[in-house]
């Protein structure tokens, strides 16, 4: 049935997760799984718990070949499959060439030392596996630590690669945008130069024509002087407007500086808030660690209580043995007393044989009743001990379930902390990009204003060239005004340079903030490693306690076998005593006399 199902799934493109837990898959099923892994490209999660795949070596090797060829599976569960060191070696060869698997669960198999070494060696070539569970496989602790270190190295490597890729993408986008802006600025500058040249040529032609007209029409000089005066007034008004614009630009620059100071203060406040949040998170993590340590102490106390209960059970068993020995001694003493009484009765009362027989029957009944009562009490004690053992096993299962739930909650909290840190970094980067865009827009506006002022100065110069000899003073005045404008332009350039320097300083502060965030990440990674070490120690302690409990159960079984053996011996002895008494009574002369009568 599994072979037909997997054959149908080979061409399926919608199933993402497949769970075949506890289906008793054999060689044909393992081969069908290998074929499925070769052909299917949609399954991301595969669960094969409780299937004993490791017992079928050929089928499991075929399955490993399929896993080696698959590049889409991300999670694989192989718990309780009786995989030995040979199967672990084949699985390691498959993992060395697989590039998609991220999680592998091999708990409660029989991998051993050789299998653990093979898996550790394959991690040197596999850079995608992030999680590998090897609990309950008789793997030494040093190999488990080395495996954990290799997995941590893979996780760190993937995180570093992702961050580097993101930074490269951001830098490439910035470089392209800067190139586009520079090309646009260069084209604009070339166009402005061409326009200025054309305007200069036109102004020269117009000045030549006007000079000829002035030489021909000297009578119109008065009217021209009046017009010149009006033009001077217009130029003065234009200069006043330009000064007002320059003043407004200075105010705008001051406002921009104030905004930049406000933004820097906001950044400083945000940094302080982030530092406080980091300190709060560290406190929470330390609190969680203390809670985990307290839980470990509670578990140790529970284990100590279980050991005390086991000791109490052993004391009860010892008391039961003593009771058995006492009963056997009492039986022996009673048997001796019965023999003595029989001899005395034979000597003294030969005629009262019937009374003696009735007394003997009564004593036998009383002995049988006493034996039955003792057996019932022993059965009751054994049932109580079994009930206590069952309750202890249930308490152990509850403790294990609680430990697993606590570990899952701790992992979920770590995942939430990582996602929150990533979201905060993305928001900060977007905020910085918006600020850079606003600064570039303000810079473009300032450049446009400067270009407009330059165009106005060029127009004033063209008008000054068209004037006659009387306009020499006006030309000098225009030169002075041009010098003032140049000085103001230099001041603007210096102010722009200052703004650029301030932006670079802000960028340096942001890089320092990023370094601080990296330090926080390293602290979080150290805390995660501490949690992993604590969880591994807790697992080892649980395994040790389980081994001790199994030893105690074996001791209980041995004690029960000894009790049953003692019961059988006592029953045999009682039967032997009864037969001996009957034979003795039948062989005595009183018995023969009664038979004759």
Task: Give the key terms.
597 residues, mainly alpha, Leucine-rich repeat, LRR (right-handed beta-alpha superhelix), 3% strand, cytoplasm, Leu-rich_rpt
Task: Describe this structure in a few short sentences.
With 597 residues, this protein is mostly helical.
Large-scale geometry? rod-shaped
The mean pLDDT is 80
What's the CATH topology label of the domain at 1-139? Leucine-rich repeat, LRR (right-handed beta-alpha superhelix)
Helix content: over 70%
Any idea of the CATH class of the domain at 1-139?
A: Alpha Beta
* CATH architecture annotation of the domain at 1-139: Alpha-Beta Horseshoe
The proportion of strand residues reads: under 5%
Report the uncertain regions.
590-597
CATH superfamily of the domain at 1-139: Ribonuclease Inhibitor
Radius of gyration, taken over Cα atoms and rounded to an integer in Å: 50 Å
Strand tally: 5
Coiled coil: 154-181, 225-259, 289-569
Subcellular location: Cytoplasm, Cytoskeleton, Microtubule organizing center, Centrosome
Protein name: LRC45 protein
Keywords: Coiled coil, Cytoplasm, Cytoskeleton
Can you offer a commentary on this structure?
It is a single chain. This protein has a domain at about 1-140: Leucine-rich repeat, LRR (right-handed beta-alpha superhelix) (Alpha-Beta Horseshoe). The chain contains ten helices and five strands, in the order αβαβαβαβαβααααα. It has helices spanning about 1-10, 25-40, 55-70, 85-95, 110-120, 140-215, 220-350, 355-465, 470-585, 590-595, and strands at about 15-20, 45, 75, 105, 130-135. It has a five-stranded parallel sheet with strand order 1-2-3-4-5. Strand 4, helix 5 (about 110-120) and strand 5 form a beta-alpha-beta unit. The two termini are about 85 Å apart. Mean pLDDT is about 80; it is low at about 590-595.
